Records
---
Amino acid sequence: MRIPIFSPVLILLLIAGAPAASAGSPVQAMPGTLDFGELRQGELVNVTFELRNSGAEVRTIRFIDFSEPGLFARVAARIGPGAATEAVVNWDTATLEGAVEGKITLEFDGAQAEPVVVTIRGTVLPAESGSND
């Protein structure tokens, strides 16, 4: 799913180690891989990563691609030169089970801006069944 970004304010988008960016890219994600561990089906994944702009120009997110349904993120659409911002990623696990992995690809404006890919993974355990006491 490819979603254009136009607003510099915090946005909520439906869709989640080493820095994630291509060599020479002014924007990096840290960490580049997010492991949420184990959750029960139906619980909401809630993890964060940092986007850092090491360039001399403001970078604006042009598009965010989410590889899996149920992924969504909140992130500032613009990152100033030398600045960083926190991205909050959630993943609805209601329809997931077992080992899961999703990717969030952020595309920025600018000639040297390579896409930044963040991987989110973990294990979704079956939902606990209710007791009939």
Note: The longest strand covers residues 98-108.
---
Amino acid sequence: MGKRPTSPTARQNRTPRIKRMNQTEKIVSCRVVGDQEVELTFADGFMGRLALGKLLWGPVFEPLKDPVFFRTVKVEDDTIRWPNGADFCPSVLRCWCEAGGVLSQEETDRCFQPRTAGAV
């Protein structure tokens, strides 16, 4: 079987490589400071606290309502993760920490939209 020819269009339609996470998005430590609240430290030294209680629903996150299980959180792969596989995107956690708390989906989405010149 030979190598398939690659057209310029096919090369353009490839999925872009995943962007490397920058230091502002990497979580280096996590401390539980309440039943469902964490204090996070990012690689650039930024720290923030988040109350995650209102996010704990559905089959993956429901077990985190148990304060004992919530305390089993670990920093793994630059984010926070629990033994059942529950985790949060570190970029989203940074956005929420900078905002001072968990945001709505619409507000969170704004964190990732390109800023335009002259925008206030």
Note: The helical segments are 8-12, 58-61, 67-70, 90-99, 105-110.
---
Amino acid sequence: MVAATLCGDGPPPMQRDWAPDELLLHWTLQASEQALVGNKTGATRLGFAVLLKFFQFMGCFPRHAGEVPAAVVEHVAQQVGVPHQRWPEYSWHGRTIEYHRAQIRSLLGFREATVADSAALTVWLMEQVGPHGRHVEQLKMALLEQCRARKIEPPAADRIERLVHSAIHAYDERLCEAIWLRVPPDTRPRLSGLLLPSRVAPEPEAQLVRCCYRNYAPTPVPPAWKPWSRNWINWTASADCSCP
């Protein structure tokens, strides 16, 4: 079972209702995991166990208690011998939860993301823009899965958002550069001239958009392509394009 959205990004990312067999499969503590909670008590014991199973299932930690379904808390609480009503007592700030997170990362072989990881993930994301298009949510999911494959705890949701948009922008810049390098040298000055304000007519740019431009550009133009789109508008106006 795979999460539908990124942890901490929008509404709770996992299903809220769980069948008994699903709880047994995904949320049952193994013997080695039971030993880890043996020296903890009360809400601390329950909180550690929930964080552990959540990370195993999602590949990231919950940001707050509300992200964990009540059925999951009750199932884990029964295993560690702590009333599920004590779940709200677990503190989401301070040394205890930071220590728990470090223990869980070490147990599962994960580590926190570094600056070098962010740079490497941005390069990897650039390669995914082609197959995934510019669908931000799909790229976020691909990034989450890549973090799991690399045993890296995913960055915060806002950081993931920036990484995805940075990769899309870099991909567009690289594509435009590749296209430009394929243009014959003697043609480049004329194309560069199209970046200047149109000298064809005084009408606003929107009035120069011909039917052929509308047909060839049915979707929003990526930011890095806007100069090229303006070139096309100027070209069609100056060439008096008359597509059907």
Note: The chain has three domains: 20-109, 115-182, 188-238.
